[in-house]
Each structure stands twice: as C-alpha cells, then as structure tokens.
Amino acid sequence: MSSHDQESTRPLGDGSDASLQNVHADLTANKPEPKDGYSMLPLFLLGLLSALIFVGSIYFVHYRGGVDPLVYDERFDPKTAAKSATVATVDPIAAGKRLYNQPGACATCHQVNGQGVAGVFPPLAASEWVSGSDERLIRLVLHGLVGEIKVKGNTYNGAMPAFGLGSGFNWSDEKVAHVLTYIRSEWGNAAPAVDVAKVTAVRTQATAGRTKPWTAVELEAVP
Ligand code: HEC
Q1: Which domain holds residue 115?
Q2: CB 141 less than 6 A from any atom of ligand 1
C-alpha cells in the first residue's frame, strides 16, 4: 500500500484546523432540514388500520352468530342431534296457572282453589260457564262482565274487569287463551283447550270495536 492511497482515505485531510473545519462545515451543510407537519407514511398506515377495523367490525356483526359458542361446535353431529332435538314450547296450562295467580288477576276474586267467594265471586270449579262455550268465555275475559249471572244454581250480581288488549290488564290473545285453557283443565274441570287463533278471531272479527263489558243475557245469545 503506497502512502498516497493512505492519504486519500483519511477523512480529516491533513489534520490541520482548517481541514477539520472544512469537514464539519460539509457535515452540517448535508444534514436534512427538520420538517414541519406529518410525513405521508404514518398517515397512510393510520388510514389503513382504521379501514381494517371498520371492515372488521362490519364483518363481525354479520357473522358473529350471536357470539354463541355453539355456533361452531366441532362435536356437533346432525344425525344424533335430530333425534335428541327438543323444541321449546310453552305449556299453556303452566303459563295459564301463572297468569291466573298473578297479583290482581283471577285468583284475587275466584280464589286459588277456583271456589270463588259465596254470594260475591262465582266459582270456576265445576262451573257450567267454564266448561261450556269457549266463545262466551273468550268474550267475558276480553271485555269483562256485569249484571246478574247464574252459576251452579246461585245468582251473582257483580262486575268482572276486562283483561284483553287495551284493557287495564292488556293481556295478549295468547295470555287469554292460556288462562282459559288452565281454568278448563283445573279443579276437576275437563273441557278442551282454547286456541290462541280463536281468541284473535273473536277479538278482531266477531267483537271488533267492542269495549264495554258483556251481560250474561248477551253471552247466552252467543253459541
Ligand atoms: C275483581 C274480581 C274478579 C277478577 C279479578 C276476575 N273475575 Fe271472573 N268474575 C267476577 C265476578 C264478580 C263475576 C260475575 C259477574 C257478574 O255478576 O256479572 C265473574 C264471572 C266469571 C266467569 C263466569 C261465571 C263463572 O263463575 O263461571 C268466569 C268464567 C270468570 N269470571 C273467569 C275469570 C277469569 C279467567 C279471570 C282472570 C282472567 C277472572 N274471572 C277475573 C270477578 C272477577
């Protein structure tokens, strides 16, 4: 290696003050200027991440399956599942019993045992009204009942409140059907269940617009 080669690779020249200052001047002149504002790359990344989170949220809402762990169950076997599948259904008698005994409802007057209160509230157990025409029962529970009525040979003259939609109780057709199905099967009564569809038909067609309570005379005219 010659002395000339060595000289040219030395960064500080000959080591004099002047050459040192030259080198420093060179370095400061080539420093990048500090910049104002944002550089484009982080802005782009921020936008990309936001878009991914946005799209991800929409995807999640669409495909989350109610966040139910059973949506994907690797042990699920359709063959055995079909046999053991149970459809959740409401037991109208159990539902009707709860409604009947609800505070302020039927049991308040007709009593839990369906015997009523002598001279004031007629009995539902073994009542010819309860086991008779369901058309009449639906009407008297939907809109109430006033005036004289004969039950099991005794005459009552009181008032029963309305329970149907729009009344103070505002019971759905389903609730009315359930409570009637219950009283027709309890305390030794054995009359057929009352259909929700029938309650709906009576309310929206046969008695549409009716709000005032029935009298026993009116009901007796209903088949
Ligand atoms: C505030 C008291 C009261 C409540 C609550 C009440 N009833 Fe009555 N219910 C009566 C009275 C009083 C009569 C008789 C009405 C009359 O004298 O015109 C009657 C009559 C009846 C009758 C016809 C007569 C008979 O004994 O078979 C049935 C059926 C009946 N109620 C069922 C019900 C059902 C079902 C409920 C609940 C959804 C209910 N009642 C809630 C007071 C009540």
Answers
A1: 92-220
A2: yes
